[in-house]
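Please review this pair:
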Amino acid sequence: MSETILTTELLERIHSRAADYDRENIFFTEDLAELAEAGYLRALVPTEFGGLGLSLKQVAREQIRLAAAAPATALAVNMHLVWTGVAKALHDRGDTSLSFLLHETGLGEVFGFGVSEPGNDLVLFGSRTDAAPEQDGGYRFTGTKIFTSLSPAWTRLGTMGLDTTSPDAPKIVWAFIDRTVSTGARDGNSNGVSNGVITKDDWNTLGMRASQSQSTVLDGAYARADRVVRRLDPGPNPDPLIFSIFANFEILLAAVYTGIGRRALELAVEAAGRRTSFKNDGRALSQDPDIRWRVAEAAMMMDAIYPQIDAIARDVDELANHGPQWFALLSGLKHRATENAKNVVDEAVRASGGSSYFAGNELGRLYRDVLAGLFHPSDAESAHATVANAWLGPIDD
């Protein structure tokens, strides 16, 4: 696609700040401001809601480019894009339950993704967070969410918890909470006090440092009734919301880690042309058969992943019906893309030599960043179990 949002100049500025953000372990404040000004946070929002009306396929391609410039920035922005993608996917399928999200994104709100919990390997299908119903139809959420990207910046948080007290309990409750609540002003501005939200200063990680994906403690955080979007039975569920979350999360994650692989390959090519071999009369290592093999191997791995992301994103855009195979396709894509990126970075490090082992080296930073892909859902075990169930059926009781 043409560079209508992420121009070369914008990506160069973002890339120039990535090393400092990583070294100082600080949030990508300037990047986010520039991306918002460029309209990127509204990329997936239909034009009727004030957005740019891009497809998931188009945005996935842009995320590859953004991640090549600054992986942590791309990963954190991903979580906002996931929610706008979910709302778009539902809207495209005639479901207006998240139209408010599209409208508010068009007005500049930033959405965080508050789903992951410590010790919860059921992910979307269970919760350790308590969702207590209020008489007005709203809910109060109490629990801890981890890996909450955009922690310093989100204004709305999409989250979920378990209602164990209603007559039809248990139910997984999906809702959106405001970061702050009004102090009573009639103009509706959210300039009041914290809405039972505590952000912990606990993000000191090996990689993806600028994402500042801090833990979020919900202490009776309130979601009003018109922001409660689903009450579902625990466990696997065919609800369109679950499909839309899974589809956008997996595809956009695959794009981010593919961007890391893309940049690692570029750095390997640069290193091969720059480095020379003493034993081969000072010739560039781009002439060395072993280095050429490694760079070629990385290039072939990258060539294979781009069309897969395009194809599956296009199928979401075009409302393709893969039936029960959908979750296998999506979890398989995420697993394949993150493992592929890790392998590409590894080949690039081997081709680039010992300089990549030094702190501050860009390829060394990519090596740290790419490891985060191991921990996002679906992890390797979950992906293989999902695909096995799709092809072989579930294990007998």
Remarks:
- Residues 184-190 have pLDDT under 50 and may be disordered.
- The two ends are 49 Å apart (CA to CA).
